[in-house]
């Protein structure tokens, strides 16, 4: 399997439905970017040892919360976090843990993204 | 125990030595800020259920890497991560995982902070 | 009075209506976060001496403008700024003052948030 | 010609229509801010030698992508980029180039802003 | 007086010594940038009505704390804050006020910048 | 040639010396990260059509200036910009162009990084 195939395989376990949406959205404007995400993010990074998918999604949603302005990606990775086995409580707790480090506003944005993602998931 | 006492107890398990340095550095200019960190960060947040200290430090170093410009706090929390049981490999892997989400420059800054912290710890 | 009660008392003077909305929005997903904001932000920080509520809201809206992506919180604190006595002109001038420090894009975002908040307030 | 007049002349070449919208949006709340953008951004900066309008717009959209949360300004400057002669392919490639430096989430936000701007432009 | 002269006059009241250092540092590489700061920041923005120099410096140091990575400029404006009449206590309190909005790490960076600036000022 | 070999070939044209330093610095702590930068940044992104190396470095230094706190990477890419044919004047002008979009503080940080890089290069 090449990296793109590995990426597709990993993505199927993490969030196949959202991946389809992004692939669709990118195909007429930047299809190469979709390949890069498959090869680098899902085929290389997520395929590495040492941390499991639950830890990796916890890191991803923390990073997305912290940089701000990435609520779309955050909703996708909140769903992905549920898919790989994080509970709703663990996701919310991850966000609350960030409050002393990034302040309440970014945490509130993440919590409200979670609220939407949880509603859609239920 | 009040929250400050709980904070001191948790901090002793996480990173007592660094806490002393920060307390010393703040005592003539903003001693109240030290109390707030004890009460809110270590007495309230770190004392919550649902995530353990290893997960909490993984979230903290991810958030510090992502916001950038916090290398001093990152070095303290890399040491704290080691103290609560994360391995050097897990810390480095946490940083590498962030590359697709924040780009290489911030990841490199964190890796070099880890290099210094690991050398000091050894 | 404990810190939560002090926070509620201060919040009533600053922005009771918005606080109700946030409390409602958080109660099913992260009610503890609401308590933390009451205790730490409004019960501890806003209750301190040295700066008055008008100065504190001026600092808050500057920080929200600067970090970007916090337009929801900005609208709440623009209303809060009006509630504690800042004029519309002072709020706009605070945002304009930031232009040489953060550039025009974030300032424009804040001005348009103010435009909405002022319209709602009138 | 004073700087405001130079700014208006440059802006007409870069993005007259969007400028009208911003002027309209600001005139009741912060008309001075509109003048500052005309004088400083378009009358001083864009009027300088050494880089042409195509290079300047490439720099502008890179900076807007990187800081995040400025999708409104990004859409305006994607249109401006087309107006001064950058192709859709060059704009998309500028955004893709940023992936190793800022990560995929901000790049995706910019690509989707481009998609909207291109559709409106066609 | 043109805007550059107004800027020089205002700067003399705010922070003449630091201005000399920046002018010296820029003169061989980007002297025009020095003029722009004089004309736009000190000749236009600081010269406006509605807010006084103390309020303007309070906004400036809040914005610099919040964006992070601007400790050099922060030290200059902490000195400027003292020059226009803010007390050391008010400067520290401004930084502490930001904790719930940006988190402790950026606040600590600002407090330590203040510690250096206060020591140099005494 | 595989992507790593393409990356090495491109890197040799862009900044061989700095690449050696980074390779050395990473080899004991995160050698895989070095490979990822070679494969993704230099073997994939810099190898794409549509934009030349001069345009790509202009985008890179703009992105590094804008995100802040990346002065080490900025110095490397200022040297790389010179290597691929950008003049000192064009690099400085790129930074000055950013002033209306990110404010003066980040621009000053980049100018001072350029000053160091130019001195080292001469």
Which structural traits does this protein have?
2 domains, 122 residues, mainly alpha, homohexamer, 7 helices, AhpD-like
Total strand segments of chain A: 0
**Poorly predicted sequence stretches spanning 5 or more consecutive residues of chain A:** none
Query: How helical, in percent, are the residues of chain A?
Result: over 70%
**Rg from Cα of chain A:** 14 Å
Q: Tally the helices of chain A: what do you get?
A: 7
CATH class call of the largest domain in chain A: Mainly Alpha
The fold-level CATH name of the largest domain in chain A is AhpD-like
CATH architecture designation of the largest domain in chain A? Up-down Bundle
Strand content of chain A: under 5%
Number of domains of chain A: 2
How would you explain this protein's 3D organization?
Chains A, B, C, D, E, F: This is Carboxymuconolactone decarboxylase family protein. Chains A, B, C, D, E, F: GO terms for molecular function: peroxiredoxin activity. Chains A, B, C, D, E, F: Residues 31-116 form the Carboxymuconolactone decarboxylase-like domain. Chains A, B, C, D, E, F: It comes from Lactococcus allomyrinae. Chains A, B, C, D, E, F: It holds the Pfam family CMD. 6 copies of one chain form a homohexamer. By secondary structure, chain A is mainly alpha-helical. Chain A folds into 2 domains: 1-50, no CATH class; 51-122, Up-down Bundle (AhpD-like). Helix content of chain A is 81%, strand content 0%. The first copy, chain A, contains 7 helices and no strands. The first copy, chain A, has helices at residues 3-26, 31-45, 53-67, 71-83, 88-97, 99-102, 104-121. In chain A, helix 1 packs antiparallel against helix 2, helix 1 (3-26) packs across helix 4 (71-83) and helix 3 (53-67) packs antiparallel against helix 4. Chain A starts with a helix and ends with a helix. Chains in contact: A-B, A-C, A-D, A-E, A-F, B-C, B-D, B-E, B-F, C-D, C-E, C-F, D-E, D-F, E-F. The A-F interface holds A 32, 36, 40, 44, 48 and F 32, 36, 40, 44, 48.
């Amino acid at each position: 399997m090449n990296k793109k195939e590995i990426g597709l395989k990993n993505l199927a376990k993490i969030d196949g439905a959202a991946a389809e949406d992004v692939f669709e959205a990118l195909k007429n404007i930047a299809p190469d970017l979709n390949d890069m995400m498959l090869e680098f993010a899902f085929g290389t990074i997520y395929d590495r040892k040492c941390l499991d998918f639950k830890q990796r999604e916890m890191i991803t949603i923390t990073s997305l919360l912290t940089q701000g302005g990435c609520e779309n990606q955050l909703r996708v990775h909140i769903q992905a976090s549920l898919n790989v086995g994080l509970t709703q409580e663990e996701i919310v707790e991850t966000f609350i843990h960030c409050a002393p480090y990034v302040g309440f506003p970014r945490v509130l944005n993440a919590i409200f993204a979670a609220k939407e993602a949880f509603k859609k998931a239920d």
